[in-house]
Design a protein that fits this description.
By secondary structure, the protein is an alpha/beta fold. 41% of the residues lie in helices and 22% in strands. It is built from nine helices and seven strands; from the N terminus they run βαβαβααβαβαβαβαα. Strands 3-2-4-1-5-6-7 form a seven-stranded parallel sheet, with helices on both faces. α1 crosses α8 and α4 packs across α5.
Length: 238
């Protein structure tokens, strides 16, 4: 996968940590990696954003942020309120194409979910993935409510003819409840794609070496790791 798009079933599901984990594994294998953040919202100029966390966790990777908006809103609304030009899918695709010319792996981390709008014309991360013919990795929460959002996300991808690279649980709790444990079986069933990882809660606070080890254990072979969904399901079976 030269370009991989990473989206979530919503906000605060662990997209940035999963992006960093994929980047860390790719870099550790000797590949050159670039991470593209089309729109960073809710962060003021000079403040640390998602890409700073990616670099802190994954180490020496190229990062590029196209636009930063101060309000913690959807990118199109945040751009309008800030009086700034919105990010357009064509701009994101062009930036990704430039990055892939000089890197083995380009990761594009979206804002919120798949169909959150970048601009007032309705451009979304799905449009970016489609234009690049890039697969999309879906990051989901662990517990109650995820089955609907993950099914909607993968259905939207399928309707657009976009390949789904699987689902990763972005923050697996130390003490999972019944819903989380049952979701290990139900997520791949309703999504129609495999569960390809689960990162433990708190992974984003680790140092780079510890994080790399967690990434290797928490992501599946398709993402460069050793995660085995069947073993994980048996360990946490509800």
């Amino acid at each position: 996968m030269g370009v991989l798009v990473i989206t979530g079933t919503g906000t605060d599901v662990g997209k940035t940590v999963v992006t960093a984990a994929v980047a860390a594994l790719a870099a550790a294998s000797g590949r050159s990696v670039a991470v593209l953040k089309p729109a960073q919202t809710g962060v003021l100029p000079g403040e640390a954003g998602d890409l700073q966390q990616v670099r802190a966790l994954a180490g020496d990777v190229t990062t590029l942020e196209l636009r930063r908006f101060p309000d913690p809103l959807a990118p199109d609304t945040a751009a309008l309120r800030a009086g700034m030009p919105a990010v357009r899918p064509s701009e994101v695709a062009a930036a990704a194409s430039e990055l892939i010319a000089g890197h083995d792996q380009v990761l594009i981390e979206g804002a919120g979910g798949l169909l959150v709008r970048f601009d007032r014309d309705g451009g979304t991360l799905a449009d970016v993935a489609w234009s690049l013919a890039a697969p999309v990795l879906v990051v989901a929460q662990a517990g109650l409510g995820v089955l609907n959002t993950v099914a909607l996300t993968t259905e939207a991808l399928g309707r657009r003819g976009i390949a789904c690279a699987g689902v990763v649980i972005g923050s697996w709790p130390a003490e999972p409840d019944l819903a989380a444990r049952c979701n290990l079986d139900d997520i791949p069933d309703v999504a129609g794609v495999p569960l390809v990882g689960a990162l433990p809660a708190g992974s984003g606070a680790l140092g780079p070496e510890e994080f790399l080890a967690v990434a290797r254990q928490g992501l599946g072979p398709s993402l460069g790791g050793e995660f085995d969904a069947k073993s994980f399901q048996l360990e946490h079976h509800g």
